[in-house]
Each structure stands twice: as C-alpha cells, then as structure tokens.
C-alpha cells in the first residue's frame, strides 16, 4: 500500500447473512484518503455508511478485502492490537454522542486522554485546552444532561481529539441535532479541516459537503461517484 495515503481500503466487503438473507452492506470498495483530507461519504439510509466506517476504524472486521491505516494493515490485527489502534490513532464521533452521563464535560475528555496513556496532569490540561477549542470552556464542569445537543456533540468531538488522532471518523454527527446545532458542529468540522485534521464523515445530511474537500456518494454498498471540491 502507498505510504502517502493515510487510510486505504482495497476490495473492502462486508456481507451479512447468506442465500436469501444475503446483504452486501459494503461491496468491494476501494478508497484512498491522503493525510489532511476531509472526506464526506453521503448516501441514503441503509446504503452501508456505518458499516464502512466501522470497517475503516477496526470496530468490525470485513468479510473480504483489506484496510490500511498509516501503513499498517488493520483488518488482520489481533483484538488487542485493534483496541490499541483505536485508542491511540483514531477519534470516533457518533450520532448519539456516547458521553458518560455521570462525568462532566471536561472529565469526559480527560478520561479518553487518560485511557490513551497520558499522565493525569497532561490529560487535564489537554481536556481543558480542547474544550476551549470547541468553544465550551465555560461549560467544562457541566454534566451532559445540562448541555444542549450541539454542545454535547462538541464535547464528543473534543474527546475524539484527546489522543491527537491520525483520523477522526464520524458517523452521522449531526443526525440528532437541530439546524442551529448542526451549524455549530459544521463550523467546528470546518476548523478541523482547515487545521489539517484528516476526517471521514459519513452522513445523509448534504450540508456536511460544505466542510469537505471531497464528497463520495454511496449506493447499495458501493461508491457511485466522487467529487473533489477543490480547495
Ligand atoms: N448486523 C447486521 N446484520 C444484518 N444486516 C445488517 C447488519 N448491520 C447492517 N445491516 C444491513 O446492512 C446494510 C447497511 O447498513 P448500514 O451500514 O447501517 O447503513 P447506513 O449506515 O448507510 O444506514 C443495511 O441493509 C442493513 O440493514
Ligand atoms: Mg448508519
């Protein structure tokens, strides 16, 4: 695989069931994401977006093909190596935030930094810095239940950045948000893009295209077309 590409897939496939129940959720996909690219993969519900993202992030194993991240083959790694890869090199953002309800905003971010092996003082400093970066310095001690949806997703994005990930993988990050909150989150993704963070966002929300360098359309488990936004 090419060293210049941060993230690559070759012949990537994930099938569910067999015979009558066979679903080709991801069907023979090739993908090259250079470092620093903000990629949006768009398509209707059920086209395989979440499955693709989970395969790329080592949350699920393919039934065929290969995934490479930073020159290392992901799909054949041991569970242990996969857990370490996810912890150290990938930032995940989910539609429903996945925050710890009983931890404050800053503690949610800090916990991820601690789990990634940062010493406690550094983890706290980094969490404070990241919350400031996502515009939530004044909400650091609030619980998720005391935050709006957009604020929760910004905490989740700060958490995804706690390990200085090679790539942020986001699955419908605006899926549970109203229009105002969607714009908050899009603005934040645009800042990450401008700062050179490699991003893969899968969504059916066409607004995400505004913060991507490249948009791929997905249908029935395969890529339909690819557009470079060219900036
Ligand atoms: N665990 C599973 N078992 C069987 N079929 C599944 C499973 N997960 C997803 N699928 C099917 O795979 C296809 C792609 O699903 P998914 O990746 O969730 O699509 P999207 O995220 O684009 O909505 C759908 O047809 C879905 O029903
Ligand atoms: Mg999905």
Strand content: 25-35%
Return the structural class.
alpha/beta
Main β-sheet: number of strands, strand sense, barrel status? 6 strands, mixed
* End-to-end distance: 26 Å
Radius of gyration: 17 Å
How many domains in all? 1
Description of the molecule:
This protein is α/β, with parallel strands linked by helices. It has one domain: P-loop containing nucleotide triphosphate hydrolases (Rossmann fold, 3-Layer(aba) Sandwich). Helices cover 31% and strands 28% of the residues. The chain has 6 helices and 10 strands; from the N terminus they run βββαββαβαααβαβββ. A 6-stranded mixed beta sheet has the order 6-7-8-3-9-10. Strands 2-1-4-5 form a 4-stranded antiparallel beta sheet, with helices on one face. A hairpin with a 6-residue loop joins strand 1 and strand 2. Helix 3 runs parallel beside helix 5, helix 4 crosses helix 5 and helix 5 packs parallel to helix 6. The longest helix has 16 residues. The radius of gyration is 17 Å and the shape is globular. It binds adenosine-5'-diphosphate and magnesium ion.
Features:
231 residues; alpha/beta; Rossmann fold; 6-stranded mixed β-sheet; 4-stranded antiparallel β-sheet; binds adenosine-5'-diphosphate; binds magnesium ion; transport; MacB-like_ATP-bd; nucleotide-binding; ABC_transpr_LolD-like
